[in-house]
Amino acid sequence: MNFLTNLFKNKKPSSVRPLAQLEFLEVDMHNHLLPGIDDGSTSVKNSIAYIQELQRLGLKKFICTPHIMAGVHPNNKSTIEEAQTALVQGLKENGNGADIFAAAEHMIDDGLTSLIQQDELCVMPGGYVLIEMSYLSESKALFHIILDIQKLGYKPILAHPERYNYYHGNFNIYKQIKDAGCLLQLNLLSLSRYYGVDSKAIAMTLLKSGMYDFVGTDLHHERHLEALKNIAEKYPVRDMLKTSPILNQTLLDHLDSNKSQGIAG
């Protein structure tokens, strides 16, 4: 009996991490959960299933950021609000109280220039505007767009800078973007090799240099979800992010304020 007692007493704890590994973030501020309006979730049913799994990982509030991309995903405030309403209704019918807010991921193109001129950007709670570039070629308008967004009183966030291959050989460009007042958002999947070895290497360098400000799932589909679950189970995510001042939790007050005013979800 003493042998068995000592055996179990000295047994090492399981290396499997708690499923709610992402709970410390609380807010997923970049995803494609709104149904049927871009290359993300195709239906309310799928969106609800994704949200339920993300909740199991510990995330509680979701700022949905569908693409606005001229000629590809021509979304606007109206189409985004309609999709948000449909998702919120579906969640209520399923007894899920997830908080859903809506903004957008704006591609830097001629359409974005027009939205800026009309002050029609889809802005996150807190006054943040999420922007992205093509993966194929650098946008020469990036710094002008950053400045124009700031002139409107908003704070630009560049989505997943680690994924722009044309920047991988020029680390100084990331510093220039930060110096211009643009925040940087990490895709959680970049902590693994999901997007390739080079993207992970840049992500880790940016993290260790303290240059990331926000983290998002950028979830589009089932493959992303499974990869996120794998990361949550096998990677020390919280420890990996400690070297950067991740601001996801600072969004909570803005989200609560928007909800109380009836602006979202």
UniProtKB/TrEMBL annotation:
It catalyses: O-phospho-L-tyrosyl-[protein] + H2O = L-tyrosyl-[protein] + phosphate. The keyword Protease does not apply. Belongs to the metallo-dependent hydrolases superfamily. CpsB/CapC family. It comes from Sphingobacterium detergens. It comes from the Bacteria. Its EC number is 3.1.3.48. This is protein-tyrosine-phosphatase. Keywords: Hydrolase. The keyword Hydrolase applies. GO terms for molecular function: manganese ion binding; protein tyrosine phosphatase activity.
